[in-house]
Amino acid sequence: MKSKTIILDGIDKKILKALTADARTPILEIARNVGISGAAIHQRLRKLEKSKLISGSKFILNPKVFGYNTLAFVGIYLEHATNSETIVKALKRIPEVLECHYTTGHYNIFIKLLCIDNAHLMHLLNTKIQTIPGIIRTESVISLDQQIDRQIQI
Amino acid sequence: MKSKTIILDGIDKKILKALTADARTPILEIARNVGISGAAIHQRLRKLEKSKLISGSKFILNPKVFGYNTLAFVGIYLEHATNSETIVKALKRIPEVLECHYTTGHYNIFIKLLCIDNAHLMHLLNTKIQTIPGIIRTESVISLDQQIDRQIQI
DNA sequence: TGTGAAATCTGCCAAGA
DNA sequence: TCTTGGCAGATTTCACA
C-alpha cells in the first residue's frame, strides 16, 4: 500500500458528484440517496481527502454582481534573460490576475484577467502589466461570452 | 428596492472570506469569529444568495490524482459562415473541454483543455476537435506549470 | 438587523459484525 | 467496509427587541 492507483466505485462517484455540485450537501442526504449509512459516507470522504483527490471546497462568487464583466486571456513575452519568478511575484500583487501559467509556444507566460470593463483592462495592461520590467509585449484575447465552465468529469 | 447596488459591510466580507476559503466552514464558527449570532449570519447568507452574489459552492477535485497533467489553451479559427452554437455544442460533448469562450481578436473561440499528457492532447486535437466541421485551424498554448489560481478578491 | 430559545438534523466517533 | 448508537454541535425558524 505504498503507491496506489485510486479506484473509485459507484458510491465514491456519487459522493463526489453531489459534493462537486454543491459542497454543502449534507452527508446524510447523500447517504439516503446512495443507500448506506452516514458514517460510511464519512469514512469514504476521509479516505478521499487523504488521497488528495479532493483539494478543498469553495463558494463560487458571481463576478458580474460585483461589476466585473470583462474576462481576458493575455499572452506575455519576456526578455530572454528575465527571471520569471519575479514576474509572477509582480503578477500576484495584481488582484485582477486570476490565473498565471508558464507556457510553451508563443508566450512565456499566460494569464487570465478579470476586469470591470474594457477600459479597465486597457488601463491594467498599460499601467500595471506592461510596465513590469522584463515584459516586452502582450497579446490579448477578450472573452465575449463564456459558454462552458466545469471541472474534470468523474 | 427595484435595482440595487450591493453593499457589503465588514461582516459580509468575513462571511464570504470564510466560505470562499472553505465552503463547509460551520456557520456558528463564523458567528463566533465575527461576534454576532448564528441566526444573524444565516440571515445574511440568505440575503447574499438572493442577490446572486454567491452562485454556488463546489468541492475542488485535484486533476493530477486522476492522472490529468496537461493543461492547454486552444484558440480556434472558424470558417466564416459557421454557426458557432453548433461548434460549442460539439465541444460540450468533449469532457476534456473545461472552458469555452466566444472571443474577439485572432480567434473565434477559445477553450481550456485538460488532458492526461501531451500525447492525449495531440490525439484530442487531431481526432476530436479539428474534425468538427467549421473549424479551420487551432493554435495551442500548453501550460507547463500553474502559478496562480484564484477568484476575484472581496 | 439584531438576539435567544426550541426543534430538528448533522457530523463524527467508537465498537462490533 | 459496512452498521448501529449516541452525543455534541450545527442548521433553521420564529417571536421579539
TrEMBL record, chains A, B:
Stored CDD domains: HTH_ARSR (cd00090)
Gene3D superfamilies: 3.30.70.920, Winged helix-like DNA-binding domain superfamily/Winged helix DNA-binding domain
Molecular functions per Gene Ontology: sequence-specific DNA binding
Pfam families documented for this protein: AsnC_trans_reg, HTH_AsnC-type
GO cellular component terms attached to this protein's record: cytosol
Domain HTH asnC-type: 8-69
Residues that span the membrane, as ranges: none
BP GO terms, sorted: regulation of DNA-templated transcription; response to amino acid
Alphabetized PROSITE patterns for the sequence: HTH_ASNC_2
Keywords for this protein: DNA-binding, Transcription, Transcription regulation
Record's protein name: Lrp/AsnC ligand binding domain-containing protein
Source species: Aestuariibaculum sediminum
